[in-house]
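Bug #77: duplicate submission created two jobs. Keeping one. Sequence:
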Amino acid sequence: MNDKSFDIYFEFNYFTINTAAFNKLSGKLEYYYEESYKDYISNQHELNFNELQEILEKNIRKIEKSLNIFIKDIYLIIETPLTKTIQLSVIKNNDGNKIIKNDAMYLIQDAKQQILKSVSEMKILHILVEKYVLDNIDYDYLPINKNCKKFSIDTKFICVPKDLLRKFEKLFLNQQVYINQFLCLKYLKTLNEKDNEKKVCELGQDSVKGMNKQEVLSVPKLFKNKGFFANLFSFFE
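Kept job's structure:
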């Protein structure tokens, strides 16, 4: 069995470090291990990175031995009180034209650029669309091919300080492990349905696979100025 057969997730929350492995072909959870590390957490729920190296190395070796693999990369789920949620409404005068997918993507890119400029010390982990609005009518889906004079999108950005993420990157690089993607634990918990409780790592897999249709997984790399403007209506959670 080689390392390409599994997607590996590590979860750092306020109480435990959890490790999970999903079979890439079936998507099933085939390994899960939970270990308390309360001694590594301060009263402010901050991690003591200087003390984490040993426990991380132990967890990596444990999963490698159990699954007979060599871990090169992982997905990392983190819980931190430093998470910030920023909401932004972006608007476009559409002159009665039909809405197309690119209209929405460029509006979201416009919002993303504004967030990056406003909080340059933060990294965006998740981009969510809360609703689409055409001429003051709300939609929970993109109403493609509908005509409207004004088109807007209410977006939400979940952000974490870059310096914190760099500490995690260094922690794993010391074990020669690369972090594919950071995920916010607080956001993932909102995806859990009351009648179908899942582990946080399973919710992380859902997010990576795009199971939440409100989450935007990618936006155009190049932003074209198409006459957008925006209004910041809520800042920080």
